[in-house]
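Suppose you are handed only these lines of text.
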Amino acid sequence: MTWLDGFGRLRPVFLGILLSFSFQGVCCELVVSSAGPTWVNAIAGSNVTLAVSFSGAPDPAVTWFKGNLPVVTWTIGSSAPPDIANREVLRIEQNGSLTFVNVPLSSSSNYTVEMTKSGLGKAVIKFTLRVFEKIQDVTLSMQPDFVREGTDRFTLQYSILQGVVENQMWLFTGREIKTSSHYLVEQRSVVILKPNRNDTGRYTVSLTNPFNHVQAHMDVTVLYGPDEPALEARPSQSFYVLGESLSLSCRAEGFPQPTAEWEFGGQTLPDSREGVLNLTNVQTSQGGLYTCTLVNEQTNERRQKSMILNIYEKPPGNPICSVQSANGNVDLQYRCRWSGGTPQAQLSFPALSNTSSGAGNFNLTLAASDNLNGKTVTCMAVHPVEQNQCNVTALGPMEFLPTVGTTVDSEGKIVVAIHCVSAASPEAVVSWSKGSEAVASGITYQISSDTTQLKIRNYNVSNFFQQNYTCTCRNPLGTQRRQIQLQGPSISDSSLFPNQEGTIVTLTWEVPPTSVVTGFDIQMKGPDLLSRNRTQTRGTSDKYRTIQWKPGSARSTDVFVLDPNLTYRFRVIPRARMTEGEPSEVHRIGPGEGLSGPAIAGIAAGIPCSLLFLLLLAGLIYLCVYCNKNKSRQTRYPVSRAVEKAITTQSDPAPHNLLTGGLKSPPDYNRLQQTPSERSGALPTFVPPPPVRVATTV
Ligand SMILES: *[C@@H]1O[C@H](CO)[C@@H](O)[C@H](O)[C@H]1NC(C)=O
Ligand SMILES: *[C@@H]1O[C@H](CO)[C@@H](O)[C@H](O)[C@H]1NC(C)=O
Ligand SMILES: *[C@@H]1O[C@H](CO)[C@@H](O)[C@H](O)[C@H]1NC(C)=O
Ligand SMILES: *[C@@H]1O[C@H](CO)[C@@H](O)[C@H](O)[C@H]1NC(C)=O
Ligand SMILES: *[C@@H]1O[C@H](CO)[C@@H](O)[C@H](O)[C@H]1NC(C)=O
Ligand SMILES: *[C@@H]1O[C@H](CO)[C@@H](O)[C@H](O)[C@H]1NC(C)=O
Ligand SMILES: *[C@@H]1O[C@H](CO)[C@@H](O)[C@H](O)[C@H]1NC(C)=O
Ligand SMILES: *[C@@H]1O[C@H](CO)[C@@H](O)[C@H](O)[C@H]1NC(C)=O
Ligand SMILES: *[C@@H]1O[C@H](CO)[C@@H](O)[C@H](O)[C@H]1NC(C)=O
Ligand SMILES: *[C@@H]1O[C@H](CO)[C@@H](O)[C@H](O)[C@H]1NC(C)=O
Ligand SMILES: *[C@@H]1O[C@H](CO)[C@@H](O)[C@H](O)[C@H]1NC(C)=O
Ligand SMILES: *[C@@H]1O[C@H](CO)[C@@H](O)[C@H](O)[C@H]1NC(C)=O
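From them, the structure of the protein bound to 2-acetamido-2-deoxy-beta-D-glucopyranose can be written out as follows.
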């Protein structure tokens, strides 16, 4: 079209030049010119003429060539018909122009007209005829059917049912595609090299010829992904505590959107295709490796990503520290235990060793040394959820006092149990010896499983006193030793407390700590006791008689009913089964004896002989004092309070000699008596007065 217009504009100039030529050789040369464009576009089926005109010579011979092939030959003006190759299509005009009737596509060609007149030369003009059809029914197709990112290429091509294309243009989202490193524009197609996701979009082909213009579109989707998945837990934490809730999400770019699949512990988790896995109230069993697989269901492309989920639980309770002896009571083993939990707590004694530690249960064995004695050592228990600690202090055995308890077994043997308990950490092991030889468990001697108690069994009380016993408490940090000298049945202190009316008395007594006692006889001298309902059976005795029997554990008793107008004497006799010990001091209750009421009345009455009386009185007082002195010099066995006080402050390794201080002569332990010592009193029971025994310990 454009060029037809251009030609039209040039035509006057062209004609001018042609005319000037014709005037120059008007009678001597044949001049041929085109009467229209030499470049002709025609639509198929139309009538088109390649028009020429000539001058300078009449009736020249005309020959039209299609390319090099002559198709029409005629001499203008001759009566002979023209020689035409294809009469259906071609016709020659009187003035030499060539007309195409219903021009077919096959007529497109270069045409040359050659005119000759003998003697007047030859003239030639070239024409180009292009025959077009309208473009119709354009379709686009793609090769291959699906485009995947990363493949080598894909091709878009058009096909038309009909029409001749003079020009094709490809566009991608409105921009023209030109051959480049990415595109290859070919005849009827365009090739996209190494397609990627950015090549997704609308492709347009625009086809033109001089007679019409057609566009066709195609939407192309490049399949891609999954890309590298992003796997994360929310909330984001390095670990989760039992019972917390979290969600795992796994996503990646891709088209179509990839689907997710979760795997844990070798099993695929159900209902998790969305890529979000909600975990509520997590258990430690849910900790571990989670793998997410993302699949592009169209391309079957898949990607995996894994993460480790830490779910922790603190061990129950608190760490427990202890110290034990190890390697035969030579080394110290510090122990720290806080087991359970996930993961196990890391335990260490940083003050003792900063290189070794243990999980859940940690033992550290060290040689015992003085600087460990009394040192408080902390076990650091480190768990991701909680840090905790416990303390332990190793202590060598402390000074202690042995205790002695006496019972009678079913065979009637006296059983003396000696306890040696020394505060120590680790617990002290007690070894026992009798004199210089070690005591082994057997029939006579029994050592408790924790070694702190030695039981001695014997019928014969005197056997208990032949040897000193020694207990040695030992742990890796030290030793404490005590000697125990058993003592016969004895009373160290006794008192008597009457009630207000003087009808009931409470007798209390104490026993030295190492005394072997299985029971007490409560003895009385004086008138008989009144019976409860006052039916009096009065009688007097000047001999002590046993009125109650008390077990070895008893330290007090009540005696009733007394006549406040009469005088009674009481004493307590300690017993080791058949063997009696020294009686306690005698406690008297009742009106005075030495200075009777009538005597005092006489003093008041006889004033004249008061001087004499005073003398007498002085003499009496002297006598009394003398008597008392004698009495106190006669040392009783055992010594009372002084002993008790001495024992409580005792710290030297031989406490027994304090207990022997007051012993005048060993009592006859073998004097047999028929009264069984171990009988609880058969006297009527009554509600005793408030205990007054505390007064004796002051
Ligand atoms: C072309 O020429 C033929 C013969 O002269 C005539 O019958 C026909 O109608 C013409 N066609 C057109 C489109 O003018
Ligand atoms: C030549 O002849 C044809 C048909 O006779 C006519 O249409 C055309 O105009 C002529 N051309 C010239 C240049 O005279
Ligand atoms: C017509 O001639 C031109 C040059 O004049 C040439 O380029 C073209 O190929 C020719 N066309 C045909 C169909 O022979
Ligand atoms: C796609 O286009 C975006 C934006 O222009 C670019 O950042 C990205 O690198 C391109 N992707 C590819 C695969 O070329
Ligand atoms: C997971 O929890 C979120 C919010 O906590 C909820 O929106 C989502 O639907 C849950 N997903 C599943 C699979 O239960
Ligand atoms: C811990 O180890 C370092 C180096 O081994 C040492 O110098 C330091 O005394 C140790 N601390 C304790 C408390 O043992
Ligand atoms: C520590 O000692 C205790 C008692 O002997 C034992 O039960 C425990 O297994 C020991 N712990 C380690 C870690 O050896
Ligand atoms: C252990 O001892 C340290 C100081 O020695 C003290 O701060 C800490 O509270 C103690 N821990 C326990 C559990 O008693
Ligand atoms: C008790 O033992 C002593 C000393 O071994 C002995 O002299 C005495 O005869 C024994 N008494 C009895 C009743 O066996
Ligand atoms: C028991 O020890 C005391 C004091 O050390 C001593 O006097 C006594 O002789 C010892 N008794 C025996 C039987 O060794
Ligand atoms: C009172 O004495 C009588 C005879 O001595 C006796 O039978 C009775 O049981 C006594 N009553 C009480 C309450 O002791
Ligand atoms: C004791 O003697 C007084 C007077 O001497 C008398 O009143 C009282 O009843 C007597 N008590 C008893 C229990 O006999």
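What can we learn from it? The chain has five helices and 53 strands. Helices lie at 2-24, 597-605, 610-633, 641-648, 656-660.
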